[in-house]
Amino acid sequence: MRSTSESLKGRVALVTGASRGIGKGIACALADHGATVYVTGRTVEAGQHALPGTLDETVAQVNARGGRGVAVPMDILDDGQIAALFERIARDETRLDILVNNAIAIPVAMTQPVGFWEKPLEAWEIWDTGLRAAFIAAWHAARIMVPQKSGLIAALSGYVGVTYTYDVVFGTTKAATDRMMRDMGHELRDTGVTALSLWQGFTLTERARENLSTVPGMATQLNSAAGSSPEFPGRVIAALACDPGLHARSGGSFINAELAAEFGIVDIDGRTIASLREIRGAPLWSPGDTSWRLQ
Known about the structure:
The chain is α/β, with parallel strands linked by helices. Helix content is 39%, strand content 13%. It contains 10 helices and 7 strands. It has a 7-stranded parallel β-sheet with strand order 3-2-1-4-5-6-7, sandwiched between helices. The mean pLDDT is 90.
């Protein structure tokens, strides 16, 4: 049974890539705490995408679970559309408390077990959506959050940042995401705004379930029983947003399963999600790491 509260009532969040998958799960988890949640994506009508899920369906669930959902159809590769969204939030809400950079292109070629030279160059879209667009969104978010002296900018990353998983561009994008959040945290250190990356392990999204049955060898490579629901990272983000000590974590990369253990969070089915640190690797960046800083 899901637990609800109003700990985020009056707070405004933006979750990118929320027509389905992890983005939708995060939006719903934040709604459980009463947040206003703007959700972006490209799927407006059923049938536009091979997988189920639309922005309106996400908003309906956000509203049903105690939040207020706002659907914003958007192409994350269009800088003008990103700018317009933040202008709308600043105008209509006058604040932004949480940005979750979740959107990332997952081309079919990513999970194909062939060399990078055998894949189309269009696979670079993973970088453009997962890193470049995330930087632009964080740039706009910081221009709202810094004046209000508070806010959380969270980027979804994972063990792939240090351990080969699927694809060269995928791993490169996630490793760069961790470094980007580390340096953003450094530059935001005196503002009250927190930037960090969150490592999510295998997640039972619509796409993941399809891959388990259709991609050769994937079912044997991944222990799907150890995977979490798409809402699990949202539960962690909600706890972070309510943590008085949040800013001390700025600049760090954190494993969601370990944060969940710290906050006493379980998945929607009551399971404790295990950290894969010993199997798949550990984050490189700790909060407040300024040992490299030029004097």
